[in-house]
Please model this.
Amino acid sequence: MIEIKPNIFNNFLCPECKSSKVEVKEIVFPGIHVLADCKCQICNTLFFSDFPIGHALFYPVTFNKSSYTIYDNENIAWFAKPLLNSYIYKLNDQISIQKKIYRQTKDIILLNCIDYLYGHVLLKLFNAQEYLEKFNKLGLVIIIPKQFDWLIPEGVSEVWTVDIKLKDAQNWFVVINDFIQNELKRFSKVYLSLAFSHPEFGKIDIEKFTGIKPFNIHNFTKQNPTFTFIYREDRLWTSGKLSSMISEINSQMYLFSLLKNILILFQKRKIIKTFRLLKNIFPNAVFNIVGIDTKGKYPAFINDMRKNKINISIEKLWCKIYSESHIVIGIHGSNMILPSVLSAGFIELLPMSREDNFLQDIAKSFNNRVDVFLGRFTQEYVRPIELASKIASVINKFPEAFIRYDNSFLGHKVYYETHKWKIDGN
Model:
């Protein structure tokens, strides 16, 4: 945690003269970032610098307030440039911010979950469990986009929900800063959560957030195999480099729109073919497809749970489906965080262009080798027959893998006590 009231964390260096004699004039809350408004006491440079929380733990951004120079920006353009642009073009839009108070406290931890990507918001929110369990004498205050407030765990002191669309979250909202500045006057001591962008998944109890128990691995062989495909039209299951390139083009040009529709049709055919192959192997299996969009009909044996719009009830329904699935299948970026932690296993189609983002949208703990067995990655051009073969292998080989790899079978003491084996001298 980082204290910002009454003592302000100050470990900032002047980006120009490298002096540590820096005055933090103010703390600013424009949205995703929490910034120190700084002045160097040696060379008088005025600059903003990220507090080390969230992605800024690894990619802290510092920029000059007058020249707009971004410092040390070799590898973080995706994080730094939107921040600078948002500062230059601040928004004075009036947005709704709702405050829910569950417990009055004077000393708090502030967990800022605002972000422009669905998965980033979730990952930051998962940090809440650490503070609720280990720092319960402090109140936990969560700042979060409105669409996520159904995931808030019990025990928090306050929730401040911000009614913005995720695509707008990279903006600099004056009203958000004004709201937070005013609210912080109520508290005696304030800490910032580190808001790890990839928390320790092995310690996260997903039921505390979703209200839904994850798949019970001990029932794996007792239930009919259930397979769920997570459908998207902006991340397509493609067949080659050309189709992959076309699928990522957001142009509104008629030709590209037509080509993309053809690729969407090909994706549909591949999903159906994969499920048909699996149905031949597992006649009693259950097949689901979830995601945004309802274009095109699927065969009757596939439960089409796609929707045009998402609301809380739909999110909960999909989470229930994930928790009943032996395997969920999705392209990288298909909001795989909740599916991968609620289901027994997953297969992710990983495009070559996303290899640097490996594991970033997977929430499996991998604390047990069984989790490793159940979590698979494959290349984006995988054919239906190859994908079906991978899935079938997981289902058929699970009983053997469970006995070999599950932690409950790997302790010597288990066998000594069960079989009353004795070791000489003991």
In short: The chain has a mean pLDDT of 88. The chain is about 30% helix and 20% strand.
